[in-house]
Amino acid sequence: MWSRALQKHRDCINGFGWSVMHMTLKEQIILNHYKTIIEKRAFDEYDILGFLIFIRAWVTNDGVIREFCDLIAHRERNQGRVMRCIEGAIKNDYECIAGSKKVKGYHGIEWADWKNAWDSLGGSLGICFSDKALQEMTLCIFSLAQGTKYRSGQYAGTVCLFQASTGQISLTTTEGTPHSLFVCFMILEGISGQDRAFDGMIDQPVETFRENGILHLQTDTGAMIV
After folding, report:
1. How far apart are CA 12 and CA 106, in angstroms?
2. pTM, entire model
3. How far apart are CA 207 and CA 222, in angstroms?
4. What are the residues facing 219 on neighbouring strands?
5. Whole-angstrom distance, CA of residue 212 vs CA of residue 145
């Protein structure tokens, strides 16, 4: 049974274009499947791949969640926030804003904005995205985004996974040339890499999987990162 709170969501709510009330019964059944595995934290990246494709029709075109829905659906893109960041960094020759480490013209995603967007979507769709579930979903999304490519005119770049010496995992962009700089697009909170051998760009293909309820990240050769 959907909660009574959902009855209020009949029009554009919390910045999202639709709600459960606009879904067909079949769509509600599909949504309930994803609701269950997300709230129970029983998903891996392939579940999240399907979930992002499913919700793509119900999120706004310019939001942070839609950015990844589109990125997952099209692994080669010529528009979107990531593309604007790549172009902005190149146009400004990777110059940082005075007194900060932020690159001019490069506007990635902050965790607070990311969390707020999922909280809003969760309110619309009746899904509780706990902090841990969101952290694990984000790790899945980072894994899915690895190696996606962007090109618009003379500007081009690739999305890469990067692990800092602290174990912090981030999604970065780079032009992909031998001397290219890596610029942080988004940092994963709450989950860290455990193997210092992977510090720097993680150039091996990765994949998430669950074992005894715990979500892990490993390379295609089976080396464990998380």
Report:
1. 30
2. 0.90
3. 9
4. 206
5. 25
